[in-house]
Amino acid sequence: MSVACGMECVVMLGCMRWVWRRCTYIGADDSATWTSATPVEFDPVPRISRLILAVYEPDLHHPNFIPTVGFRPNPDWVVKRVTYEQTHGHAPPYLIYVDHDHKELVLAIRGLNLVKESDYKLLLDNKLGMQMFDGGYVHHGLLKSAIWLLNEEGETLKRLWLENGSNYDMVFAGHSLGSGVAALLTVIVVNHRNRLGGIPRSKVRCYALAPARCMSLNLAVKYADVIYSVVLQDDFLPRTATPLEDIFKSIFCLPCLLFLVCLRDTFIPEGRKLRDPRRLYAPGRMYHIVERKFCRCGRYPPEVRTAIPVEGRFEHIVLSCNATSDHGIIWIEREADKALQYWTLFKCQLNSNPTHVK
To answer: Which positions fall inside the Mono-/di-acylglycerol lipase N-terminal domain (predicted)?
Structure first.
C-alpha cells in the first residue's frame, strides 16, 4: 500500500512539474539570452516577406495581401511566375524577381497549401536519417524539390546574374514548406556555384520565414552565414521536434498533437536530443521576433533577437493560442515591418532629444 502511495506521489509530482513548466514557458524564453539584432541586418526581411506574398497574389497590379505603403513589388520586374500546374507537384509555386533598386535576384517560394496533395507528398517523403548530404542529414523530400528547382531554373538564374554584370545578390526566400526548399536550394548552390556562373558565396543569401526543420544541427550552423531564419514569437513549426509528416497527418487535430509532443519532449533530456545526429533543425542564423510578454495582454513594440544557437534551438513547443497564427506570412510581414518602424522612431527620438530617451 505504501509503495502504491509513493508511486502515486511520484506521478503527481511529475504531472505538476510538467504543468508548471508548460504553463510558465513562453516563446520569448527561447531567445532570452540572445543579442538584439540591428536594423541594418534585419532591414531586408519585410521586403522579402512581401515578395513571398507576391507568389500568393493572382494579380500583382491589384494585390490583395501586400500593404499599400512601403515596398511593393514592381510587376514589370517579375521575370517568371510558376504555378502548381507548371511544377507538376515537384515544388510549390514560385516567382523569379529582379529587384533593380536593391540589386537582388530573388526566387521566392510560397508555403504549404492545405488543399494540394503534392505539398503533403513533399513532406511525407522523409524518414529519420533517410537522406545524408554534405556530412549531415537533410529532409529527403525537400532536397528532391530543391534539386528539381535548380535543374529547372538554374540557366535562367545564371543568365540573369550575368546580364546584370555579375553584381547582383542571389536571394532565395520561402515561407513554411517553401522555406525548407529555399534553404536546401541555397546549400546546393553554395556547393555548386558554377551552376550559376561562379557566383561568390558572399552574394548568396536565403531568408527562411517560419522555417521548417530541414537539416541536421551541424549543417544548420555551417550555413549560418548564408541562411537566415525568421521566427515570430510562438510559431509551432520551427519548434516541432516530431517528424513533419506526423504534424500534417494530424493537421485537423493539431492542438492535440502539439500537446502530446509537449508532454513527450518535457521528459527527454536536452543532451540526448543533441547527441542524435539525424535530428533535424531550423536552418542557419535565427532571428526571433518577440512582441508579447508573460501574463500581459496585447502586442508590444517588437524586439528582434538573433543568434546561431546550438543548445536551445527552439526545442520546446509553446502552449499558446498564437502558436498557429504566428506561423502566418502576413503576421510575420506585419511584425517585421513594425520592428523596423519602431527602430526608426526610436532613432528619431534619440536624435531629437537624446537626454530623455532611455
So the answer is: 7-68
